Amino acid sequence: MRYTPAAPITAPLGIYIHIPFCKRKCDYCDFYSICDYTDKLMDRYLEALIVQMKDYFKYSRRKVDTIYIGGGTPSVFGGKRIEKLLRELNKLIELMPNAEVTVEANPESIDERFLKHLRSAGVNRLSMGIQSAHDDELRAIGRLHTFAEAEAAYHLCRKYIGNISVDLIYALEGQTMEIWMDSLRRICDLQPDHISCYCLKVEEGTPLDRRGCVQPEDDLQADMYLESIRYLENRGYAQYEISNFAKGGKISRHNSRYWDLSEYLGLGCAAHSFYGGKRFAFVSDIHAFIDGVLGGKPVVSEMDDMEYWNGSGEYVMLKLRTAEGIDPEQFEKRFDQSFAPYAKGLEKYVPSGLARFHNGYWQLTPEGFLVSNAILSDLLDGILNHDM
Ligand code: SF4
Q1: What is the 3-state secondary structure (H, E, C) of the chain?
Q2: Residue nearest to atom 2 of ligand 1 (CA)
Q3: Which stretches in the chain have pLDDT values below 70?
Q4: Which of 67, 129, 141, 210 is the most buried (most CB within 10 A)?
C-alpha cells in the first residue's frame, strides 16, 4: 500500500534546523555535534544552510507553522547568525501568523545580545537545557554551568522570550528520590511554561559509559517517574507525552508533529526529515555537508521512499506516546484500515492498569508509559503475526 499523507501537501509544514556546535561535549551525549569550530566554519555552515533552504523552496512558498532550531547548541552559533538564518528563511516560506519559532540554548551561552537578536528575528519560544538543580550532578555529567548561572540565564530569557521550556534529566548516578524531587521543585519554582523530564540513558561509547556509570535501581527509576508526574500535575503541568509536561496548554507544537506523523523538513547536517512522502537524513559530518551543499553535490545519507508503507503501525507507536492517545475513528479514516486488531492487543493491558479506553481514546496510563517499549513491540508483533 502506498503512503497517503493525512493532509494535502498545502498543509502547514514544520522545519527543523540542526546547529552542530557545542562548547564541550556533555558526558552522556551521543548527538552529532563538534567542539573544534571557528567563526569561519560557522559562517560557511550558515551559508550552506541558506543555499539548502533556497534549493528546497525554489518552486513553492510553503506555509510553515513551526520552526525549531536545535542542536548541538544553537546559542553557541550566536544570535546574529540565527537572526540572519531566520530572515533568509522568511523570504522563502509563508510563516503563519501564529507560528511557533523555537531555539534551543544552554545557560552558559545566553546573554542579552543573543536574546535581542532572537526577539527581533521573531523567536517566541526558548528551550533551555538545565538538567539538574544540583551543581555536583551538573559537574558529574559534564555540564558547563552551575544552577545559579542557569537561574540567572532563565530570568534573562524571561525578559525577552514569552514561552520557555526547561529540560531535566533524572536517574543520574547516585541520585536519590529526595535529590531528584528537589531539582524538580526548584525548576517548578521558576515557573517555565513547559518541562521535559528525560530518564538518563547511558549511550554506548559516551564518557558515562566508559566510566561505568551506575544508575539507580529500576524500581527507584520507576518511582521517580511516577512521582514526577504526580508532582508536576499538582504544580499545574499536564503530561501530554511520555517525557513532556506543559502549563496553560503550552505544548511543543513542533515536537507534536513527530508524534502525529505530520510532515517536517530537517535542514543541516545530521538532520532527519519526513517530507514529500519520504524519510531521509543528511550526512552527519559538517565538512562533507558544507562541501556537498556549496559544491552542488548530494548530501543525503539515508533515504526511504516508503513505497509500500502506509504508516499505520508507526502512527500507533508514536501516538501511544502521547497522553491523548488514539481515536480509533480518526485512525480508520486516516489509514482506511480497521483499528480492531490494535484495540484487541491493547485490551490485554487494561486489567493490569497499563492501558485504558477513555473518552473515546485508547491510551497508555503513566504505568503503561514506563513499559511502553515492551507494550508497543508486543502490539506490532501481534499485528505482523496476525495472532490478535
Ligand atoms: S550541549 Fe546538548 S548537544 Fe551539546 S553535548 Fe551537551 S547535550 Fe549534547
Answers
A1: CCCCCCCCCCCCEEEEEEECECCCCCCCCCCCCECCCCHHHHHHHHHHHHHHHHHHCCCCCCEEEEEEEEECCHHHHCHHHHHHHHHHHHHHCEEEEEEEEEEEECHHHCCHHHHHHHHHCCCCEEEEEEECCCHHHHHHCCCCCCHHHHHHHHHHHHHHCCEEEEEEEECCCCCCHHHHHHHHHHHHHHCCCEEEEEECCCCCCCHHHHCCCCCCCHHHHHHHHHHHHHHHHHCCCEEEECCEEECCCCCCHHHHHHHCCCCEEEECCCCEEEECCEEEEECCCHHHHHHHHHCCCCCEEEEECCCCCCCHHHHHHHHCCECCCECHHHHHHHHCCCCHHHHHHHHCCCCCCCEEEECCEEEECHHHHHCHHHHHHHHHHHHHHCCC
A2: 72
A3: 1-9, 307-308, 386-388
A4: 67
Q: Whole-model pTM?
A: 0.94
For the Cβ of 12 lying below 6 angstroms from any atom of ligand 1, the answer is no
pLDDT for res 309: 73
Distance 181 CA to ligand 1 centre (A): 23
pLDDT at 280: 95
For the chain, the domains span: 13-259, 324-385
- Give me the CATH topology for the region 13-259: TIM Barrel (3.20.20)
Give the atom of ligand 1 at the shortest distance from the alpha carbon of 104.
Answer: 2
Assess whether the C-beta atom of 33 lies below 6 angstroms from ligand 1. yes
Q: Is the distance from the beta carbon of residue 221 to the nearest atom of ligand 1 less than 6 Å? A: no
What pLDDT is recorded for position 1? 42
CA distances (Å), 360 to each of 25, 113, 331, in order? 45, 49, 12
Residues 6+ positions from 20 with CB-CB distance below 8 Å: 32, 33, 34, 45, 71, 72, 268, 269, 270, 286
CA-to-CA separations, 144 to 10, 132, 155, 184, in angstroms, rounded:
43, 12, 18, 20
